[in-house]
Structures are given as structure tokens and as C-alpha cells.
């Protein structure tokens, strides 16, 4: 036995099939149910013989459940083992088969997929480090004084060349007594030559200096 369905629009064509060896006899078989009001005198409910099977195709409206049974003209009522379900009939101890079309034809709920928002990552541009020159190339400036000047914002030859000797003396005095002995009078001039890349002239100048003085 088999029960197949093919839905078209608001209806489903249901094909009821009984193999010849499953039939109680070779007598004609009727398909009776809610869809034909169980009328045994309706010739349209007789199943057709196709080869070694009995077949009946009927169109049923979607959204309902239909009860049915088979009736052999000489052996009586029998059930379809391929029914969707079984429910008690009005007669005690007898069940009817069910064709269930309650969910057929329902519109499928459209599940919206969550759209992943592409978060644009803000790429931080690398912060350019302030240019620093090697102030120790200036005669009279050692590592510690170079660090002091850099902390004061004078970390390049260009800035040093634009700083007055008086201001440099003030920075050294502020740094402590040990730095007041240094004389920064030539530092701006040396820094100017270094900034311009005039290393030969800077060397000549430094040869004449004594500790930057």
C-alpha cells in the first residue's frame, strides 16, 4: 500500500495505491471517505486496476484532514497501512485512516538571515616620532646634557641653532649646579653647521674650541 501526494496551488492530488497481493480478494475495491461522503453507490469511488495494483487519484483541498477506508465488495472493510494517521470511527473497535493535509500549502516563514555588519576598523596611522639629532656631535654636549635639552624640546640641530646662548644657560642652571660650568655660547653656531651638513667646517670650528668654549 502507498499514499503519495502532489500539491498544486490550493489542492493536493492524492494517489491511493494497493498492491494486488495486499487486497483481500480479486473483487473490486471502493475508496470511501469524507471526500465522497462515504457513498458506496458513487461509481467514481471505485479504484482502477492498473497492472497488479489498484489505484485511485483524487484532488483534495489543502488545510484539512480526511478520514477514509477501503471496501472490498466481497470481503468488506479494511484499512490502508500507509495512512498518515488513524482515528476512532463511529463504530466501536474500528479505526479510520487519515490523509493529513493540514500543513500542506502553508507559506513557509521566511527567516531573515542576520546580516553581519562589516565594521570598518579604523586603522590608526602610525604616529611619527619627533625627529631627533645626535646632539653629542656638538662639542661640549654630553649624553646627560643632550637628554636635558631634548626634554626641553630642543632635540634637533635646527632647534638648537635657533636657541640663544642665554636660554641654554638658563636650562643648564635649572638642571643643577653641576651643569653651570658648561658654556653653551658656541652650541647654536655648531648646531647650524651640523643642520646644514657642513661637517668639515664644523670640524674646523671644533678644533679651535676647548670643551665647547
UniProtKB/TrEMBL annotation:
A GO molecular-function descriptor: hydrolase activity
Keywords from the UniProt entry: Hydrolase
Keyword Hydrolase among record annotations: yes
Top-level division of the source organism's lineage: Bacteria
Record-linked CDD domains: E_set_Isoamylase_like_N
Signal peptide boundaries: none
Protein name: Glycoside hydrolase family 13
Amino acid at each position: 500500500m502507498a499514499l503519495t501526494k502532489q500539491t498544486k496551488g490550493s489542492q493536493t492530488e492524492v494517489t491511493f495505491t494497493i498492491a494486488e497481493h495486499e487486497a483481500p480478494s480479486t473483487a473490486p475495491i471502493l475508496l470511501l471517505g469524507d471526500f465522497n461522503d462515504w457513498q458506496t453507490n458513487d461509481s467514481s469511488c471505485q479504484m482502477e486496476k492498473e497492472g497488479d495494483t489498484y489505484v485511485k487519484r483524487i484532488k483534495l483541498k489543502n488545510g484539512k484532514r480526511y478520514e477514509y477506508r477501503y471496501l472490498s465488495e466481497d470481503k468488506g472493510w479494511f484499512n490502508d497501512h500507509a495512512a498518515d494517521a488513524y482515528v476512532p470511527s463511529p463504530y466501536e473497535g474500528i479505526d479510520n485512516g487519515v490523509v493529513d493535509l493540514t500543513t500542506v500549502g502553508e507559506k513557509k516563514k521566511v527567516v531573515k538571515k542576520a546580516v553581519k555588519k562589516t565594521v570598518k576598523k579604523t586603522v590608526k596611522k602610525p604616529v611619527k616620532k619627533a625627529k631627533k639629532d645626535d646632539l653629542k656631535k656638538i662639542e661640549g654636549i654630553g649624553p646627560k646634557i643632550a637628554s636635558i635639552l631634548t626634554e626641553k624640546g630642543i632635540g634637533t640641530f635646527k632647534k638648537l641653532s635657533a636657541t640663544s646662548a642665554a636660554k641654554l644657560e638658563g636650562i643648564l642652571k635649572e638642571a643643577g649646579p653641576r651643569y653651570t660650568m658648561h658654556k653653551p655660547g658656541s652650541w647654536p653656531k655648531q648646531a647650524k653647521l651640523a643642520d646644514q651638513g657642513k661637517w668639515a667646517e664644523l670640524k674646523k670650528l671644533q678644533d679651535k674650541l676647548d670643551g665647547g668654549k
